[in-house]
Amino acid sequence: MKKLLLILFTFLVISCTKNESSSINNNDLEEKIENLVSKMTLEEKIGQTNLRGTSSRVKGPLPEALKEGVRKGEIGAFLNVMNTDYVDELQKIAIEESPNGIPLIFGRDVIHGFKTIFPIPLGLAASWDVETAKTSSEIAAFEASSVGIRWTFAPMLDIARDSRWGRIAESPGEDPYLASVLGKAYVEGFQGDLKNPTTMAACAKHFIGYGAAIGGRDYNTVDMSEQLLRNIYLPPFKAAIDANAATVMTAFNEVNGIPATGNEFVLKTILRDQLKFNGFVVSDWNSATEMITHGFAKDEKHVAELAANAGMDMEMTSQAYEHHLKQLLKEGKVTEQQLNEFVKNILRIKFKMDLFENPYRDKNHTGNFYAETHLTAAKKAAIKSSVLLKNKNSILPLQKNTTIAVIGPLANAKREQLGTWCFDAEKEHTVTPIDAFNQYQVNYKFSEGLTYSRDQSTKGFNEAINTAKSSDVIVFFGGEEAILSGEAHSRAHINLPGAQEQLLKELAKTGKPIILIIMAGRAITITNIIDDIDAVLMAWHPGTMGGPAIYEMLFGISEPSGRLPISWPKTAGQLPYFYNHKNTGRPADSTNFVHLNDIPIEAWQSSLGNTSHYLDAGFTPHFPFGYGLGYTSFKYEDIQISKDTINSSEQLTITAKITNTGKNEGHETVQLYIQDIFGSITRPVKELKGFEHIQLKSGEQKKVTFTVNANDLKFVNHKLINDFEEGDFNVWIGSNSASGLKTSFYLKKIRI
Fold first, then answer.
1. Which terminal residue of the chain has fewer beta carbons within 10 Å of its beta carbon, N or C?
2. Is the confidence at residue 468, as pLDDT, over 60?
3. pTM (predicted TM-score)
């Protein structure tokens, strides 16, 4: 007993010492910041809030005016400085010639890779895999930091429920739980130990609601209830901030009438007061002065006043702070205490990045661009991200001796395969499917049929059809060019562009099986052609190693293991669509809706069921959230819960048995969904609360276990309180959001 008490005492002493040490270190940091701010002139303080850039096309020496700005301490950070000589020179001036030697931060959009490009973020989200997300950002940081980039404008954590929106390509998808898990992983991957010069400060963006732009049209208005904002759009940002994300970027959009960059409620009440964020807030590109166009600010001076009082620390590219903060301070419309807080927030991150001790780029750090380990990780990520949507008669995987007709505009499109936001990618390093087929001596004939994804010309059809006739199977590489998705690249119609559908219809007439590989930045509606196609593999824009990844999946060397991070629509007319919707008072189901073509002539007005559905598209998506096939089959059985009723201090265990009933070893992503059946505000029909990856051999069975407690069942209610409520809950364990074994339990709230 004495020994046990001694161990316990020792543990408590060590714990207290650690906590005390942490407190001392934090106090020491804040003291350093205070001391530095006290030495700074007003001009230097304003300078720290200025984020400036240089054109990558600038040749020759840096402009003297730019160097003089750094020399005077009038610039706090740079973006898009890609000439390493410029990086070195500017940092040297800042350290050695500016009044207080405050280092610069160099930032860049490094979104899903720097040189080695990984699948687009929506594709990475389809992996449902923490390690894949973390590894992708670790490698991106390692490569980018070699050229002086220590700050990335990623991850983007905007919940996206509308595939028309171009920036869905950068999104983690439609679900707040999945987005939160991935957001944490991205931040940890980018940042690691921020003192390490091979890491980058992360930037959680865009705060907030950007993905809810009306009509899926970029930069458009966002209007939503505060409950929706907090229950759906806020959780990924909370996860990133809890993971110590260094910076947060404001959104372009307005939120309920107030642009995010000048929204005090969003930036102060939510971000600072409630989420306890202690990094710095940066505007998006010109989003500060765009408040004038929004009709919220009357001029640039008013912009500076609004943004400052809202709590924006650093202004990207526009110059409202630089031009007007000094005058606003004189007029008392902004206080020096406010400005000091901006500067402290910025300096805090610079200290945490160890820039005061190690400001210069390590010239011995090469970045190992396209290292074998980086390429292997990128290929693995492309496989984990790819989603098999259809596999009629198990046509996939193919036999090695199969004669393949390779057709389509994206079979050998090095640039397009990389996707959006690849500023620093070098297409000559891209390995396309054609490259991979050549490398592995696949028996194929290539006839693209269309020269690019939007091509309307049919002049290549005959050659493609003849190639198909002389082959065993057609592998069609279709989708979108990179330019058709990403920022400002929204589409009203999201089917295959150009004459791709027409060509597929003609190829179907040959009677040859067709495997469609889609490379795109969003879900593509394939309702018009799905019956003509035997297999569909969604590869997204898969990045540098997309070709070898697709080769391995086609021939069964690897199995596609992705699951949809979004609901896949039948038509753009269904959008926005999301699985975690509300029931309505008249929900549709398979027994009470009527299709347009089944309506009798002169039908009585109320004869169609009067439920919430489309007469021509029903009420379900083409493929549900969480959906994805593999090269085997699984059986779910025997769902069990630890007890029928739990109180708010207890934990519930839910289990099910999963058996591989197919002939091949395979991967399954087992998913847990819960429904709060009734509440003080109406609740979604289902919410993802957990998932587990399992790998089973043919005939193998595994018992999968999930645990939930009252904290997992919290939501922001009608009183804007985040709490759980007593009542009945349904729970499912299944392979996607539309299937699964179901049971129920009761949560009893302890009364104190």
1. C
2. yes
3. 0.95
